[in-house]
Amino acid sequence: MMLNGSRLTTATYHSWILLYIITFHISLAKFPLYIGGTYPKSNVYLQQRMIELETSANLAIRDINLRTDILENYELRLNLRDDKSDKIVAGRVFVDQVLYGPQLIALLGPWLSSSASIVAPIARYWNLIQISTGATSTQFSNRIEYPYFYTGLITDITYNLMRVSLVKHFGWRRVAILYQADILFDN
């Protein structure tokens, strides 16, 4: 076989074709962007909701990855880990993801306010956008302490107007409030 006056062997020709195919394939590959996160997957009471959360997140990421008009050269990948409804485990899972996993661009979760109270103060130092679909504590409304924390729910304090209306509606004169003695509920 002749190319520009030089003689090419079949092996050399095949090597050039293989190199071209590999180069073309690499140019089509998308750069991965990782979203980490924790959620209480093994919690018996929340199990169905957590399956729905994971399924919804994966469907959203799939839809985004299939679009050609956004994140054209990137591919989102979700890396969710079970925090077993334990705030200490959630903190460890987050630290493991940041230190030993691929570089993260965002976090999904934690789902519980108690777990988010451990992860959110740490996550801000990595400038990670954090989205929780379950944390409702008012502490996360503080934009100075939690500049990258967002939740899809209203905070616990928002229910106070409804509670007052309920008391007035029934004409109650004395009301007892039971609450959990935790920093999350001190606000």
- Strand order within the widest sheet? 4-3-5-6-7
Overall 3D shape:
elongated
Mean of residue pLDDT values: 84
Q: Total helix count?
A: 5
| Tally of DSSP β-strands | 7
Helix and strand run: EEHEHEHEHEEH
Structural class: alpha/beta
Radius of gyration: 25 Å
What is the makeup of the main sheet?
5 strands, parallel
Span between N and C termini? 80 Å
The stretches of 5 or more residues where confidence is low (pLDDT under 50) are none
How much of the residues is beta strand, in percent? 15-25%
Helical proportion, percent range: 40-55%
Could you describe the 3D structure shown?
The structure is a single chain. The protein is of the alpha/beta class and 187 residues long. Helix content is 40%, strand content 18%. The protein contains 5 helices and 7 strands, in the order E-E-H-E-H-E-H-E-H-E-E-H. It has helices spanning 10-28, 47-66, 87-100, 113-123, 160-170, and strands spanning 2-3, 6-7, 31-39, 74-82, 104-108, 129-132, 149-151. The strands form 2 sheets. Strands 4-3-5-6-7 form a 5-stranded parallel sheet, sandwiched between helices. Strands 1-2 form a two-stranded antiparallel sheet. Helix 2 (47-66) links the parallel strand 3 and strand 4. It starts with a strand and ends in a 17-residue tail after the last helix.
